[in-house]
Inverse folding.
């Protein structure tokens, strides 16, 4: 019985985007976007600057109301709601608990005025945790998981390196055990060696926790290593969506072919 | 009379590449291809370079999109058409039914060799400890010394990387195995070890399709040949 209901729940997409449009004045950022994301699935969004990737991510995560269309999500109980039809406070709670948002710049995702431990503990308190010792213990577990020395728990984030700040931001997001994580260029701006470490961490976390994720990146190698599917955007529209290795090895759309053939082989 | 179940059944497969950025050329590589493999067979693809042997393997794996035709693969007792299946079905077929070993190892930096090999098994739900035990057995069998298991394989020699790649590809007992020149960088002794793995796969009822640049190796492991000819020549 339990197993059957589990399979049934897994057969519903976690997120369904339908005919999503977003313009800024005369400029169209997203045009007629449609896709589904299933539990545990990682989707990478690629395309050149200005293609609409970041706007799409903001529309998906509740930061930016689209002009038209729907962002439908399935709750833990199986009920489906439109993200922009629910009351603002409920949306905020969802974003703080069931979803995580990892920004390219840790400054946008961390509070620099409070300690590393508090940055992680804060999300727990937002969902009602009140036992200080318990919060601290959970925060320590997540810092450790992201390979941050627990001895530095009481230090402020600005004393951390860029790679550590990014890992702290991830710890802060994962502590509430979200089902869906949005990432905007999570490895952008980091040294290559730090990127590799972060990629490995992200990949094992996604696998172990069964997280679904939408990752905006301009790095096709990152997409190949992390994503199940790849979405190629150009001029606000999705021009191709398929299995990551299929889109990279047998791209169909002219723009996807250009994108793939422009990467230096190393 | 062969009564072994059919695990791969390809009907009228056509594959072409439309190169938009290179003068809008369309290259048709496969046309009207029929191909069938039963359990316990190892079919070796033959034919000149560029005839489409790798293209056929990649179509079977869903890595290349078929233009038309059917690519049926037996998965959990039913035939799934890789050419039209939902992406989640293809991922599930790849996780549990369809193994693919390419010529080169492509993995995340920093992951240890033992974990690189164990990973596909972990993804099928096998507990990490037993997955690592099986990985250790494969690495031993392929002659990768234990001192290398806890290091990432990026710095290994070509032959070592290729053996790690083979170990990874054989970690799960896939019912269908696709091998794209997996032994190109191996010496005779290691080739013999790989032949042993392929023999075991056949004996447990796997369907194997392989491309081997070494004709003798193909004769050794293959149960039959399947000739892939360039379509212009085939038509002539």
């Amino acid at each position: 019985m339990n197993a059957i209901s589990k399979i049934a729940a897994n057969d519903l997409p976690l997120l369904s985007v339908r005919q999503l449009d977003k313009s800024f004045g005369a400029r169209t950022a997203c045009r007629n976007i449609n896709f589904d994301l299933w539990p545990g699935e990682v989707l990478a969004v690629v395309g050149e600057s200005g293609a609409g990737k970041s706007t799409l991510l903001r529309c998906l995560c509740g930061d930016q109301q689209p002009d038209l269309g729907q962002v439908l999500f399935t709750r833990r109980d199986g009920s489906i709601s439109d993200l922009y039809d629910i009351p603002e406070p409920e949306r905020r709670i969802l974003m703080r608990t069931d979803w995580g948002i990892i920004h390219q710049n840790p400054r946008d995702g961390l509070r620099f005025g409070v300690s590393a431990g508090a940055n992680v503990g804060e999300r727990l308190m937002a969902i009602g945790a009140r036992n200080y010792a318990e919060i601290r213990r959970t925060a320590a577990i997540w810092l450790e998981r992201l390979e941050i020395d627990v001895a530095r728990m009481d230090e402020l984030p600005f004393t951390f390196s860029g790679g550590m700040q990014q890992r702290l931001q991830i710890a802060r997001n994962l502590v509430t055990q979200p089902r869906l994580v949005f990432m905007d260029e999570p490895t952008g701006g980091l040294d290559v060696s730090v990127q590799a470490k972060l990629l490995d961490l992200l990949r094992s976390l996604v696998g172990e926790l069964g997280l679904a994720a939408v990752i905006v990146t301009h790095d096709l190698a990152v997409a190949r290593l992390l994503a199940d599917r790849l979405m190629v955007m150009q001029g606000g529209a999705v021009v191709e969506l398929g299995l990551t290795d299929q889109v990279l090895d047998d791209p169909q759309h002219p723009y996807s072919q250009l994108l793939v053939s422009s990467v230096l082989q190393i | 009379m062969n009564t072994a179940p059919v695990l791969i059944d390809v009907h009228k497969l056509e594959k072409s590449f439309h190169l938009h950025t290179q003068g809008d050329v369309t290259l048709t590589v496969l046309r009207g291809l029929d191909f069938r493999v039963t359990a316990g067979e190892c079919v070796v693809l033959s034919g000149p370079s560029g005839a489409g042997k790798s293209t056929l393997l990649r179509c079977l794996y869903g890595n290349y999109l078929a233009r038309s035709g059917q690519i049926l693969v037996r998965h959990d007792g039913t035939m799934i058409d890789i050419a039209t299946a939902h992406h989640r079905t293809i991922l599930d077929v790849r996780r549990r039914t369809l193994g693919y070993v390419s010529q080169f190892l492509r993995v995340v930096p920093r992951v240890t060799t033992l974990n690189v090999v164990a990973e596909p098994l972990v993804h099928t739900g096998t507990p990490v400890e037993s997955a690592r035990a099986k990985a250790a057995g494969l690495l031993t069998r392929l002659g990768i010394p234990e001192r290398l298991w806890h290091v990432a394989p990026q710095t290994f020699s070509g032959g070592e990387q290729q053996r790690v790649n083979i170990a990874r590809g054989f970690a799960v007992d896939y019912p269908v195995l696709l091998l794209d020149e997996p032994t190109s960088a191996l010496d005779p002794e290691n080739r013999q070890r790989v032949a042993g793995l392929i023999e075991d796969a056949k004996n447990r009822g796997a369907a194997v399709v392989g491309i081997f640049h070494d004709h003798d190796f193909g004769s050794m492991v293959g149960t039959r040949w399947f000739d892939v000819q360039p379509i212009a020549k085939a038509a002539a």
Remarks:
- Chain B has a mean pLDDT of 94.
- Chain B touches chain A at residues 17-21, 58, 62-65, 87-88, 90-91, 106, 108-111, 122-123 (CB under 8 Å).
- The longest strand of chain B covers residues 6-19.
- Helices of chain B lie at 53-61, 87-96, 113-123, 128-141, 158-169, 188-203, 215-221, 231-235.
